[in-house]
Design a protein that fits this description.
Elements lengths: L21 E5 L4 E4 L4 E8 L8 H17 L4 E8 L4 H13 L3 H20 L2 E10 L2 H17 L4 E3 L3 H13 L5
Antiparallel strand pairs: 1-2, 2-3, 3-5, 3-6, 4-5
Helix pairs in contact: 1-4, 2-3
Length: 182
């Protein structure tokens, strides 16, 4: 009988992320901090349906994505997931319109729109991706995020910086809900 030797546990590298290694959020710069001393800047990429596109358009998207990836030299991790749509700006607009509206019929229509926005926000799922950039300094993390977003805007890829508390907490919730990231 051959006895197997237990493998030594590999120590995680400085740019490996698990939800338990997050130790703080720097709201002044919109960065996550890890217990290993790294700073993490986050970009959210909205999903798009490329299967219905023409081959030339698909090729343009692939080339644009590759250009964005090559623009950043820091280590990064891409997380693809389902998220709820962010419709708060539409909701605020309708709420303001309801306050100004005097006509009862139009106010009823606005209330119905508000109901549907709440319904979609609770029940609809969108495809999205998060790109996490790891760096040793907060300035490098910020600069990497800005250069990635600038390159994506030039390439017409829909990206947003996750700098607000709600955005960063949503990412943490996604990390905690998936057993692979714990």
């Amino acid at each position: 009988m051959i006895k197997r030797k237990p493998r030594p546990e590999k120590a995680a590298g400085p740019f490996v992320l698990s939800a338990t290694s997050l130790c703080g959020i720097d709201l002044s710069k919109g960065l996550l901090r890890s217990s290993r001393g790294t700073y993490i800047s986050v970009v959210k990429v909205r999903g798009m349906d490329i299967s219905g596109m023409r081959p030339d358009d698909q090729e343009f998207i692939y080339a644009s994505w590759g250009a964005c990836e090559q623009a950043c030299e820091t280590p990064r991790k891409i997380i693809l997931c389902e998220t709820r749509p962010e419709l708060s700006s539409q909701k605020k607009h309708i709420e303001k319109a309801m306050i100004r509206q005097k006509n009862p019929f139009l106010q009823t229509l606005l209330e119905r729109q508000l109901f549907w926005i709440d319904h979609y926000q609770q029940n609809q799922r969108d495809q999205a991706g998060y790109i996490l950039f790891f760096s040793k300094t907060p300035d490098e993390a910020e600069e990497t995020r800005k250069s990635y977003i600038q390159r994506a805007i030039e390439s017409r890829i829909n990206v947003t910086a996750c700098t607000q508390l709600n955005d960063l907490l949503e990412l943490c919730q996604i990390l905690l809900s998936n057993p692979e990231w714990r």
